[in-house]
Amino acid sequence: MAHNPLAPEWLSSPADANTLTDALWPSSARRTDGGAITIGGVTAVDLAARFGTPLYVIDETDARTRATELRAAFDAEFARIGTTVRVYYAAKAFLSTEVARWMVDAGLNIDVCSGGELAVALAAGVAPGRIGFHGNNKSRAEIDDATRVGVGTIIIDSPIEIERVAEAAGRHGLVQNVRLRVNSGVHAHTHEFLATSHEDQKFGVVFEDAPALVAAIRAQPSLNFLGLHCHIGSQIFGVDGFAESASRLLSLQADLLAGGPVPELNLGGGFGIAYTSVDDPSPVADLAAALADIVADECARRGIPVPVIAIEPGRVIIGPAGVTLYEVGTTKPVRIGENTRLYVSVDGGMSDNARPALYGAEYSVRIADRVSDAAPALVRVAGKHCESGDIVVDADYLPGDVAPGDLLMVPATGAYCWSLASNYNYVGRPAVVAVVHGEARVIVRGETIDDLLARDAGVSTRSTSEAGSTNDMKESTR
Ligand code: LLP
To answer: Distance (Å, rounded) from C-alpha 265 to C-alpha 253?
Structure first.
């Protein structure tokens, strides 16, 4: 089929709408001889039959390998410039106790940004010293808990927090390691970065205020200043924004060294991934090499020692390892002038993936239980919610015979999908299943109608039917 004018410019009609573009899929994804997609050796058909749909599926080997390879690449590149790297997995991308353990197994630390994320990391058995605690409005209770359990670092995000953290650490009779989050004035997104002198945003402290705030931290006997922190954005494809930010931070670092030690520098996270066939993020190994070169050059230029570097990637580790499985409920050709877009509605939507509605995020899709020779048709995959912006995949091509009952898989949903999920329309959050070596197991169960009713104070008796699940769930995923 020729290009459909309703498609975005970047999307061309593929010769074969069954192909799995490698960069988008977990490394174990392939099609069986029968045509079904298999992940971790488990077919989409088996997953749907056993656990129902919608379903989040994580390729365990893929997630572990990405964590291990990222760490190895950064270790090697920063060893080359004479320093070490602490890699923190950004738990906000996806967190469960299992995944926290995979990350620790790979030698990573864990970055949390709420008492809830801290509780999950601790429940996973993560050593508190490996945890970094973030947030622009940590409650007093969160600060108290974090210091009491002995988290490795707290990232101070505002002048007010200096005294709050110092007071809590003092009360617990310990010295708390802290970083100061500064706003470097660089803001990056995908291909571009913006450098403005006065960035107007809620995170971090104003760059020019940092020296006075570091002095205030150093004046607190219950705080130990580790260094600066800066996070310039997320889903960043190139190195330029990181380079600009690192350069600014190291100029500040040089000034701060006059007043005492600054052993570390945390460059944040934000490395991008491919969501569509035209996305082309820099490989992690290239980013590691480029960042090491920049840090080495900037330190040499200023005659300062190369600090220990910390980074906080989330998406690049867990995003490509996850897919979401849906079942098609209805299809509807919608004519717009001369052209037709095929709306394909699935049994999930913005409650399991808010990113298209929130950010206009693009995704890709494939039929998961079969291949087809039918000519490719431009589709929009919509969810089941009462909201016209409830889109899962804004535009892709699928075989034109896509029909009710087909299974669809959307790749690259491992990050910021489950963690941003909601109960809109009282739709329960789907289960998360890990697949590895031909085995599938539930790592977070899905929500049942009972779960959804449980917090309603007006419900006196539990009267949900036997089939009391919010979707058509099968085996004990709920
Ligand atoms: N460190 C800090 C301080 C952050 O705020 C974030 C992400 C990260 C690390 C990890 O960034 P990553 O490597 O995963 O890009 N919900 C949005 C993304 C929000 C990112 C928030 N902060 C999305 O779905 O695109």
So the answer is: 8
Residue 246: which of 161, 322, 309 has the closest Cα? Answer: 309
Residue 467 confidence (pLDDT)? 35
Ligand 1 centre from 340 Cα, in Å?
36
The pLDDT score that the predictor gives to residue 200 is: 79
Residues of the chain with pLDDT under 70: 1-2, 196-198, 461-478
> Residue 156 has which token pair?
């101070």
pLDDT of residue 472: 54
Distance 315 CA to ligand 1 centre (A): 7
DSSP 3: P
List residues with catalytic annotation: 386
Pairwise CA distance, residues 370 & 376, whole Å: 14
355 CA closest ligand 1 atom index = 24
**Per-residue model confidence (pLDDT) at position 199:** 72
Tell me the CA–centroid distance for residue 257 and ligand 1, in Å: 29
List, in order of start, the domains of the chain with CATH numbers. 22-54+322-413+430-447 (2.40.37.10), 61-318 (3.20.20.10), 449-478 (no CATH)
pTM of full prediction above 0.85: yes
